[in-house]
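Ticket #4471: structure output looks truncated?

Reporter: J.K.
Steps to reproduce: submitted the chain below (480 residues) through the standard prediction queue, then opened the result file.
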Amino acid sequence: MRENRRLVEMLAPYDWLHPVWNVHPHWTGEVPAPDRLLALMKAQGIRAVTLCPQSNAWSLRSRTSHALLATLEEAGVPVIFSHGTEQLDSETIEFLLERHPRLPVILREVRWSQARHIVPLVLQYPNLHLAFDHFQIHCGIEWFVERECADQLIFASDAPTMSAGAHRFYVDYAEVSDAVRQKIAAGNLLRLLGNMPSPVPRTNRDEDSIMAEAREGRPLSPLVLDIHGHILDEGLHGGGATHFMPDGGPSGIRTLARRMGVDGIGVMSWHGPVACAAEDGNRTVRAALDHDPDFFWGLGTFDVIHDSAEKMRADMEALFSDPRFLGFKPYPSYGIPYDDPRYDVWWQFGNERKLYCGIHPTRWYEESEFDAICSRFPDLTVIAYHCGGSYPVADVAINLARKYPNFYAEITLTPVCAGIIDYLVEGCGPDRILYGSDMPMRDPRQQLGWVVYSRLPLDQKKAVLGTNAKRIIDHVRSHQ
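Returned output as attached by the reporter:
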């Protein structure tokens, strides 16, 4: 309670910041009894609370928590949960929603891998509200709006940990009506908080031409090439395991990408590398290339577990006879490190043909795995995926970029860490960073907004968005 009160004092000078108190049941005397707590909140203008049962060592299911929850429910006070940090299981959330059906519940920090747990609850309980800070489901806003859940969607940025611009992009490019967009951007939260002063519009004096297009939800005019996409078969909406991917086939991917102004995507199958179904995965990629050969280019994968080097070499000769395939996609699911000799046939073939490979490390960003490839095969372009996932990973990428001219860093990952795009460009150089989305595993809008709303100069922003990838693609095609 000391920190709750101090928060009010700290934020008093800033009319755009509003305090949220962290509370828990009153039995130990650290927090006032519910009625007294509610009176204090009203006096201080506190309109929402965050509940942290795991971090603060209490139970949502206990009868001893009922008085607090019932008082908040009666007053209509929204309660905010950080789903991942608090390790909330779907049964506990459902228990809370059943027992307190008028309590406005907001879930943030829900990963897209929890979709099959969370989606049914959103559909069945109108008092459950969902933020999209980590819940980056492909076409997620559109999917929920089609199912009449528009009033339950909340904008959240997790700033300054995450990029606020990345999350704004998700709303601005949603294929929904302006009225629904306004609900998600602000209206739903203002309704839940009640009696909030009207927000004052604010102008970003550092806005460049790309940011201006994004703010209006217009397709971006500079060249945008996505170096990291997956593809499902047409009509599929998931990739097994934990992955819910609505509209993950060629039509859905192209429609969403073109809405943002993306000019092309390099795609690998999902089940080829992830499920080690190389031959069938390459067939799925070929079907996407047939669907739109001017928009997609392909990456192939090969069965390094079961096939001999001679068999893989023959399969490569056959696949890359199609000039629409420009690179490789290995994956940790094969269970073999990339510096294992069994992969050498990949790297040798790629080195001869001047191809590129997109690498999700088997040992999470140990430099030695990249050293073994970049140093021995200098004509193979090595693209490390997910370099924006954390600052320690970015440091590894920076070290590798400084050692090897054939090393490039791709950015994508759910955390969309604030400031890390600028950090990578400063460390690696503006010509070594690539935009990628990993769609439809996650929605591409946060990933693209992450770059668009970075603080990079306009020329460097354009390099990351497209011209760096074009240089790699042109290099491969010139040697086909």
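Triage note (M.O.): checked the attachment and the full token line is present. The two ends are 67 Å apart (CA to CA).
Status: closed, working as intended.
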